[in-house]
Design brief:
The protein is mainly alpha-helical and 532 residues long. The chain has helices at residues 5-22, 28-37, 39-49, 55-64, 85-143, 147-174, 180-201, 213-218, 221-234, 239-245, 249-260, 266-279, 288-293, 298-313, 316-329, 334-362, 364-388, 407-426, 431-438, 442-474, 478-496, 505-513, and strands spanning 394-396, 401-403, 516-519, 525-528. Helix 7 packs antiparallel against helix 16 and helix 17 packs antiparallel against helix 18 (407-426). 46% of the residues are buried.
């Protein structure tokens, strides 16, 4: 019994498509496209860390130069333009808070930017805030006008808030399904590189001094210009946006051919058109109201929000807050503290690189559950070690053990800090950004990312405002609160968060809702419960 020509042709086409799907690997063009886009992520990470090293220098700049509030709380001694120490601290808190407020506004605006300007246009637009902030820093230094420094931090915050939505969206829409995890983690990887570069350039011997701090803070100008020019002239809008939003299949096919480095991209086009049919993208975009009230998107949103909140409230800021004192208590001299802090950035970077390599092999869920479980135990141990660290004789209760000094607990605390950074960088650091792009369709992705990133920044603002007071009240026991938050998050992840590796958005949504979806003749999504 032989095969007909039709059967043979169909078999050849199926084999060809299967081969295409298997061979969806990195191309040079895709790599440079990802690197170009994630220059925005680099700027965000850089701006997170850059203010740490020159803190004292900037506070002095604020107190000694003319200022917006020059008639308030002036010191009764010396120059009338100087402020009291408490006023300078309040202004410094304002500067840090405005960065977070800018991030919240940028995150909220990102949906409208995506819907009106598209993915590529949105990224190019958001570079305006980096460019403006960098210019204001330079003007602030040369004009001795600290007011502009405050405004620049707000603008940098807006850029960071937008980048958290714009970049993961762009990356998810240019990458094949087999590389979604790696391209998604690229956002977090370049963010950690930005943090690391800021730590290095912030050394007093390089740019972190009273003569060059303005260059340090204005450095985002360089990647902003490079990213803008490269993206404008070398790389396209995402294929999904071209096909679904712009209704331009020719441009979408051309973009796919460039990104995949092959002529036949029929399979990729079919997948995008299937998503267009399922999401009804050509007719409507999901608003914030629809997103918050949609039954079929409820668990996608809840689980995404849990991951975003867990990322901020897992204790990452607390660890970095305490790291300097932990290093100092272990006997590291003040002149070398900056190098010890740099080591945490190096560990963060190396672990994120490892995450890029394994996320599409092990999946998302294992990289969340296991590291977070370690974090819980780690925080309990860290609390214990911090409680006993002392240069004097230490008695350990219940065990009736007396140590000549408790410096060993300082060393163990450093180990706990390193372990936490490894666990965070491999799980809660990158995966929340990846997950939210994998459980929402094209029509809801913009609104979902805006809500999730806004929530992330609200949690960040909460920590910025209240963590110092919380740490003052609870002292070393503050880590137990973070352990409890991580524990609750792990339970939610185990029970409700599905594995998204290698699954389409529809498969993830069905898994979340434990329901089966069908489509009527009008291509409207109808819901019917799966039979037990």
């Amino acid at each position: 019994m032989g095969y007909s020509n039709t059967d043979e042709s169909k078999a050849c086409n199926d084999l060809k498509r299967a081969s295409e799907q298997i061979n969806q690997k990195w191309t040079l063009y895709l790599f440079f496209c990802v690197m170009t886009v994630t220059l925005a992520s680099f700027q965000f990470g850089y701006n997170i860390s850059v203010m740490n090293s020159p803190t004292d220098i900037l506070k002095k700049f604020i107190s000694e130069e003319s200022f917006l509030f020059q008639d308030m709380n002036k010191s009764s001694e010396g120059n009338s333009s100087k402020y009291t120490e408490s006023t300078v601290e309040n202004i410094w808190t304002l500067i840090n808070s405005l960065f977070v407020v800018g991030g919240m506004i940028g995150a909220f605006m990102s949906k409208y930017i995506l819907d009106t300007l598209g993915r590529k246009g949105g990224i190019l637009f958001h570079y305006i805030f980096s460019l403006s902030g960098s210019v204001l820093v330079a003007v602030s230094f040369y004009s001795s006008f600290p007011n502009l420094l405050i405004i620049s931090r707000f603008l940098f915050g807006v850029q960071g808030g937008m980048s958290c939505s714009l970049i993961p969206t762009y990356l998810s829409e240019i990458s094949p399904a087999s590389l979604r995890g790696q391209t998604g983690v690229a956002h977090q990887l370049c963010l950690t590189i930005g943090i690391l570069v800021a730590q290095i350039l912030g050394f007093k011997e390089i740019l972190g001094n009273q003569y060059l701090w303005h260059i340090l803070l204005a450095m985002p100008l360089v990647p902003a210009v490079a990213g803008s020019l490269s993206l404008t002239f070398l790389f396209p809008e995402t294929p999904k946006a071209l096909l679904l939003t712009n209704s331009d299949p020719i441009a979408a096919r051309k973009a796919l051919q460039l990104l995949r480095k092959r002529v036949n991209v029929d399979l990729d086009m079919d997948e995008i058109q299937k998503e267009a049919k399922n999401s009804n993208q050509s007719q409507s975009v999901v608003s914030f109201g629809k997103l918050l009230t949609s039954a079929k998107l409820r668990w996608s949103l809840i689980t995404s929000l849990v991951l975003q909140i867990a990322q901020q409230l897992c204790g990452i800021n607390a660890v970095f807050f305490y790291s300097e004192s932990i290093f100092r208590n272990s006997g590291i001299e003040d002149d070398y503290i900056q190098y010890a802090v740099l080591s945490t950035g190096v560990v963060n970077f190396i672990t994120t690189v490892i995450c890029v390599m394994i996320i599409d092999r092990l999946g998302r869920k294992p990289l969340l559950v296991f590291p977070m479980s370690v974090i819980i135990i780690n925080f309990i141990l860290l609390t214990t070690f911090l409680q006993f660290q002392s240069p004097d004789e230490v008695e350990i209760p219940f065990l009736n053990i007396i140590l000549e000094n408790g410096k060993i607990f300082s060393y163990l605390s450093i180990v706990c800090v390193i372990i936490f950074i490894i666990c965070f960088a491999i799980g809660l650091g990158p995966i929340p950004f990846v997950y939210v792009t994998e459980c929402f369709r094209q029509d809801a992705r913009g609104a979902a990312l805006a809500v999730c990133m806004f929530t992330n920044w609200v949690a960040n603002l909460f920590l910025t405002l209240f963590f110092p007071s919380l740490a003052l009240i609870l002292k070393n026991y503050v880590f137990l609160i973070f352990a409890a938050i991580v524990l609750i998050s792990v339970v939610v992840i185990i029970v409700k968060v599905p594995e998204t590796k290698g699954r389409s958005v529809d498969e993830v949504i069905r898994k979340l809702n434990k329901e089966k979806y069908e489509y009527d003749n009008n291509e409207q999504l109808m819901m019917s419960y799966a039979k037990a």
